[in-house]
Amino acid sequence: MKKMIRKMACLMLALILVMSLTACSADPNCGKYICKTVSVGEITVDASNAYVNGASLELKKAGACDVVLDGTTYLGSWKSTDSTLTISLQETDSVGTIAGNKITIDLFGVGMTMTFEK
Fold it and tell me: 109 is in which domain, residue-wise?
C-alpha cells in the first residue's frame, strides 16, 4: 500500500512539473525581454547608458509580469490583444506594441519609449 501511495505521489509531482513548464508555452509572448534602447523624443541611447544596472521585463503565465529597472523589481500584470500590449504596474497602465520578439512601450507614461527584445 505504501508503495502505491509513493508511486501516485511521484506521478502527481511529475504531472504538475510538466504542466507548469507548458503553461506559458502556448502564448508566444511569454518570456524574458531585455531593454536594448531608450528614446526620448528624437534622441535614442543604448539602454545600458540609461539603466546602469539593467532593465528587463518578463511576461509570465496567468498574466503576471516582473519589470526590473536599474535593479528595482516591479511586480505587475500584462495582457495582449493582437499587437497591443498593456502592462499594469503600481496602478498605472502602460500601452505599447508587441511584434515577434520585440516590445516597444513607454512604462509609467513618462515620455520615454523603451525597446525590449527577447
Answer: 27-117
pLDDT digits over 14-44, tens only? 545 444 444 455 788 999 999 999 999 999 9
Q: How far apart are CA 44 and CA 19, in angstroms?
A: 41
The pTM assigned to this predicted structure is 0.76
DSSP 23-87: TTTTSTT-EEEEEEEEEETTEEEEHHHH-TT-EEEEE-GGGEEEEEETTEEEEEEEEEETTEEEE
Residue 45 placed within a domain? yes
Single-letter amino acid, residue 46: D
State the CATH number of the domain containing residue 34: 2.40.128.280
C-beta of residue 87 within 8 angstroms of C-beta of residue 78: yes
3-state secondary structure of 18: helix
CA dihedral over 80, 39, 53, 36, signed as positive or negative: positive
For the chain, what's the residue count? 118
Residue 50 within any structural domain of the chain = yes
SS3 92: strand
